[in-house]
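Support reply, case 0932

Customer input (verbatim):
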Amino acid sequence: MNPTLERRIAQPHSRRADVPRRRYLSRVICLERDPAGAAPPGTAAVRPWRPDPDAYLGLYRRVGDPWLWHGRLQQGTGALARDLADPGHRLWAARAGGRLVGFCELLLRAPLDAEILHCGLTPEQGGRGLGCALLGAALHAAASAGVRRVWLHTCSEDHPGALAFYRRRGFRPFACRLEWVTDPRHLGLLPATAGSRVSLPWG
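Our regenerated output:
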């Protein structure tokens, strides 16, 4: 454990804003763990998923719009299609009531290293164990592939319980940084109605 890093993480994040440019300062925390010993999800509600770009973006938007997720929207459909077809790409979706309600995305970046790119649920599905099952599916797949290190990041615009959620599941912080982010609504990537879970000075 790095005491300096832990102190930085423990400090409340005061989100600075550059109002004229519609930018905000986001705190990004990177975490890692060895996936060895991870159990499979143990629920039929979580299954591997092979969507086309449109289906992927439909669920990405339903999960991420409240939190202003925009990375996949910014990269374009062509780049997304290539990512989805990458042999090292793995994706799981969660279902509830016959509808897709969340997903977890893993990228095997090197023989011993993998990144969880996204893991999330639609707002009404929290607290039902589906997040644990999605994350468990990704960790189990990484362990089965011989991966020694899985890493991910969370930020100040994620669910306020995200950091604690990952730490309870064995992830340890290894970096913390600040990044200026331009509001994706200002860039036209998201509608003005997005961002219901993020408080910014301009609404």
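We compared this against your earlier run and they match. Two observations from our side: Residues 27 and 178 are 5 Å apart (CA to CA). The helical segments are 3-10, 53-64, 71-75, 77-85, 130-144, 162-168. Please reopen the case if you see a mismatch on your end.
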